[in-house]
Amino acid sequence: MKADTLFDLTGEVALVTGASSGLGLRFAEVLAANGARVALVARRADRLNDLKQKIEKAGGQAIAIEADVLDRGAMRRAYDAAEKAFGTVTILLNNAGIAHTDRAVDLSEDTWKNVLAIDLDAVFFWSQEAARRMLAANRRGAIVNIASVLGFNASKGVVAYAVAKAGVVQLTKALGMEWANKGIRVNGLAPGWFTTDINREFLESERGQTIRKEIPMERFGQDGDLDGPLLLLVSQAGRFMAGETIAVDGGQTVGLRG
Ligand SMILES: NC(=O)c1ccc[n+]([C@@H]2O[C@H](COP(=O)([O-])OP(=O)(O)OC[C@H]3O[C@@H](n4cnc5c(N)ncnc54)[C@H](OP(=O)(O)O)[C@@H]3O)[C@@H](O)[C@H]2O)c1
Questions:
Q1: Which of 17, 23, 195 to mutate to test the pocket of ligand 1 (most atoms within 8 A of CB)?
Q2: Exposure check for the chain: N or C terminus, fewer CB within 10 A?
Q3: Pocket of ligand 1 (CB under 6 A)
Q4: How do beta strands 37-42 and 13-17 pair?
Q5: pLDDT band at 169, cuts 50/70/90?
Q6: Rounded to an integer, what distance in angstroms lies between the CA atom of residue 66 and that of residue 83?
Q7: How far is the CA of 1 from the centre of ligand 1 (A)?
Q8: Alpha-carbon distances, residue 212 vs 192, 223, 248 (angstroms)
């Protein structure tokens, strides 16, 4: 089959959480450029509206929906708005996330709960809502959860984040197998280091530069490095994949250069 047919998303309706910056913004643009109509979700509505205009200018279709992923009422309203604009959501990208840099002995209960709530609990509830609606509409679809290499390997100062992302990897397996025979494919992407608002200060520090040299490819991720893996998981190209989380990290998970 020709690549442009294999990865074509015409007729699909995608919902991207955390589309207001970083990886999610890029994911939304890539989905729209390949034919999906895209619902953009995050708290910063001004940024979503800017992205909606950018996508429309490039010939795509998008809707901006202001919502906090922790708010279940806002979640249902977001799906309603996406459905009203474009129809049943058939591609969900659980991308919204936060990080922290506290050593375990200093980590507050509030930070622990907030990181787990945004980075893990919300991934389940947004997936559950998407699946319920796809099943009710008798539609097939794909869910992609954004995990992290820290879901596979630990590091100092990120205990809540690493636990949440490991949970996302396991959640992806559990939902992937439970919904595989219903035509809902659940898979994950585990990015290595990409410079975004979540980590810019750290990656630009001396420690960050040391980390960069330890990555087998000797660089951080760049715009475009996740485009292909994302398209594989959401399109017919990945139609026999379920429950898998793919590391996209310049070789970091395989081993550091040392
Ligand atoms: N950058 C990396 O190196 C890296 C590596 C591995 C995994 N990841 C994962 O990639 C995903 C995207 O991160 P990023 O690097 O692109 O960071 P980012 O630029 O800080 O983006 C995070 C996004 O999540 C949204 N968000 C956070 N809390 C939210 C909430 N309560 N409700 C709704 N939206 C919320 C933010 O939007 P608003 O603030 O507008 O709500 C923003 O759009 C995260 O899951 C992160 O863990 C990143």
A1: 23
A2: C
A3: 17-18, 20-24, 42-44, 68-70, 95-98, 118, 146, 148, 191, 193-194, 196-199
A4: parallel
A5: very high
A6: 15
A7: 35
A8: 11, 16, 15
Tokens of 8: 């074509």
Of 41, 149, 198, the residue with max ligand 1 atoms within 8 A of its CB, to mutate for a pocket test, comes to: 198
pLDDT in tens, 48-96: 999 999 999 999 999 999 999 999 999 999 999 999 999 999 999 999 9
How many Å apart are CA 97 and CA 18, to the nearest integer? Answer: 7
Atom number, ligand 1, closest to the C-alpha of residue 18: 43
Domains and CATH numbers, the chain: 3-248 (3.40.50.720)
For 16-57, the pLDDT digits (tens) are 999 999 999 999 999 999 999 999 999 999 999 999 999 999
Number of neighbouring beta carbons within 10 Å of residue 91: 25
List, in order, residues 6 or more apart from 12 with CB less than 8 Å away: 31, 35, 36, 37, 90, 91, 141, 234
Q: List, for residues 215-226, the tens digit of each pLDDT value.
A: 999 999 999 999
What SS3 state is found at 16? strand
For the annotated catalytic residues, the residue numbers are 161
Share of the chain above pLDDT 70, in %: 99
Write the DSSP assignment of 121-188 as a string of letters.
IHHHHHHHHHHHHHHHTT--EEEEEE--GGGTS--TT-HHHHHHHHHHHHHHHHHHHHHGGGTEEEEE
